[in-house]
Amino acid sequence: MPAQVPMMRDVAVLFASPWGFEEMCTHKFWRVIADRLSSAGVSSLRFDYPGTGDAGDRSDFQAGLSIWEDSLVEAAEQLRHLSGCRRIIVVSQGLGAAIATNAAGRLGELAGMAFLAPAISGRLYLRELQFWARAIDDGMGLAEAHRSTGGVAIASLTMPEPIAADVRKLDLMAVAAAPCSTCLVIERPNLPAESGFADRLETLGATVTRASYTGYDALVANPTMAKMPLAVAQTLVDWIAGLPAGQQVSSGEAIAGSQCLLCDGYRETPLTFGKAQRLYGVLCEPLGKRQGATVLLLSTAYDRHAGWGRTTVAMARALAREGIASLRFDPANVGDSPPVAGLADQVLYTETQVADVVEALDLVEERGLLPAIVVGRCSGAYLAFRSALRDPRVRGVVVANPFAFFWNPKRNLDEFLSVVPRSLDTYKARLFQRDTLRRLLDGRIDVRVAFSNMGKAIGQRLLQVTGAGPFLVPEQRRNCREVKTAFEQLAARGTELRILYSEHDIGLTHFATHFGADGEGLKRYPNARMAMIEDTDHNLTPEPARRLYFEAIRDMAMAPAPRR
Fold first, then answer.
1. What class is the 11-121+177-241 domain?
2. For the chain, first and last CA: distance in Å?
């Protein structure tokens, strides 16, 4: 990100990201820090390691962790080229701290290095990752048969084994020389290892500033509920601003247009678009002849546009290989797209996100890529459905596990997200599992919340069984009217609609409220079809489930335009 004001020093910041779920949670935080640096006159560069995020895929990782270290060195060269800076400040977190430490001698002149929650011991880091992955799988209700049991994996992301083998050998306490003479260590409270690393750097002659990573747990617990530790961001920016200033430098070489990623069967172009270029996304196009409708791949919750476990990236590239173009992007206040001034931070299930999709459709139209279909899962499914209602340029919609088709803006979303109940069938299946009983006895289950959620699930099931109508409260009757009207509008317009649900998904209770437990009510709308995906979770983790989702999207994109 270039500086918004003239650069007053010959330094720029290079971000060395963590890996896996931690990277998913901190991606937006990196953007927040970069925005503050830009306002202070400091340019910065964020990037994805090979095989992660939006970076190119790679099948050969035999060179191990050095692949990611080499990419950091290349990023440093690019940062100097683009910004005109001479010295670099590296900001790292988690595994990124070890990558930056190993590569420090090849990064050129360094003005400083910041280590946020650094991974000190590779073995301890991987052990912590294993427990973390288990907690995420438990939270999703993922069946044991679908959990990764081999290698290092978390949140549907797998670390290549050669890299994992090198990570196991990492020990930052054994470094023979300080990677930089000026360091900042922002350590998690009550973790002696991170404090010990700061001591080690001082022993090696570095000048070390220490700070507490207050809010770390709230940042990495869940991308949907992540809270940005703004005080930590300001501490970091203040430390960077306080480093010795060099001479003012002229800007580096301007970026001439978008830089494309050319790979087997596809071309990807990073883009900013919308009013004041406020939105960021990636256009993925086939290298050969384009066919079918362009697919808008919408984000789920606050996940970055790469998708949970990079599923959106994989889907976009698979579509391109079949001749179908796509656009994946971050709505405002998600991932790399900044918030809109004056609007609430909570943007899920709001009309403000629909306005973002409209601007994405404007981009697609400007580039001559219409017609278009919209696709999303969970909250992204809601966004896809509401966007189709708003904009007639949407030819078709594919939604997976939508929780709702209408959201009352007066409903407290933050409260709902903090205690999302599962379906009654899921509670029945899990209630007498050995692991559930053990966690209950260990006090690891909040009994009050658990029984409250079960009560909600039972109430929803009763509404399904009784036909709902006579027992609906006024708000529920209003919701039903809104959903009926919406489906009628899409049917009248001829907008094709495909609805996919995982077995036992919580969204099925809401679907049944509107269309009956057997979905008979959906037959009133000739443009709409619903299908069930067996043996999968809400995130469609198993490969067969993802394949079915992909095929539904591909078939919708390739379908002939409906007759008017």
1. alpha beta
2. 46
pLDDT at 562: 64
**456/461 Cα distance (integer angstroms):** 9
**Those residues with Cβ within 8 angstroms of residue 74's Cβ, 6 or more apart along the chain or in another chain:** none
The answer to whether the bond into 371 is cis (omega within 30° of 0) is yes
Q: Got the DSSP string for 45-81? A: E----TTSTTSPP-S--TTTTHHHHHHHHHHHHHHHH
The reported pLDDT for the residue numbered 214 is 96
Distance CA 510, CA 405 (A): 9
Please report the DSSP string for 347-398 in residue order.
-TTSHHHHHHHHHHHHHHHHTT--SEEEEEETHHHHHHHHHHHH-TTEEEEE
> Which of 11, 5, 37 shows the shortest CA–CA distance to 182?
11
Average of per-residue pLDDT across 123-136: 94
Whether residue 115 contacts residue 183, with contact meaning beta carbons closer than 8 Å, is answered with yes
Q: Tokens 């720029």: give the residue.
A: 12
479 contacts 486 by C-beta, under 8 angstroms? no
Query: Could you tell me the two tokens for 364?
Result: 């697609």
Q: Return the residue matching tokens 């027992």.
A: 471
pLDDT for residue 150: 82
The three-class DSSP label of residue 424 is: helix
8 A C-beta contact, residue 56 and residue 68: no
Q: How confident is the model at residue 462 (pLDDT cuts 50, 70, 90)?
A: very low
Give me the chain's average pLDDT, please: 88
| Angle value at C-alpha 199, between 194 and 200, nearest 5 degrees | 95
What tens digit of pLDDT does each residue of 209-218 get?
999 999 999 9
Place of tokens 């301007």: 254
CB atoms within 10 A of CB 331: 30
Strands (E), 388-476: 394-400
Coil/strand/helix, residue 504: coil
Residue type, 352: T
Per-residue pLDDT for 257 more than 90? no
Choice among 392-401, 407-416, 445-454 with the minimum mean pLDDT: 445-454
Q: Point out which residues pair with 90 in neighbouring strands.
A: 14, 113
Does residue 325 contact residue 283 with C-beta atoms inside 8 Å? yes
Select 261-417+474-558's CATH number: 3.40.50.410, 1.20.1740.10, 3.40.50.1820, 1.10.10.10: 3.40.50.1820
Instruction: Kindly report the backbone phi and psi dihedral angles of residue 54, in degrees, each rounded to the nearest multiple of 5, phi listed first.
Output: -90, 0
Q: Which of 216, 538, 537, 256 is nearest to 402 (CA)?
A: 538
* Every domain of the chain and the residues it spans: 11-121+177-241, 261-417+474-558
Q: Indicate the burial class of 564 (C-beta count within 10 angstroms; 0-12, 13-18, 19 or more).
A: exposed
Question: Do the domains 261-417+474-558 and 11-121+177-241 match in fold?
Answer: yes
Nearest to 273 by CA among 342, 209, 331: 331
CB burial string 282-314: b at 16+ within 10 A, e below:
bbbbbeeeeebbbbbbbbbbbbbbbbbbbbbbe
pLDDT for 259: 81
Helix H or strand E encompassing 486: helix 474-493
What average pLDDT does the segment 462-483 reach? 64
Distance CA 329, CA 358 (A): 12
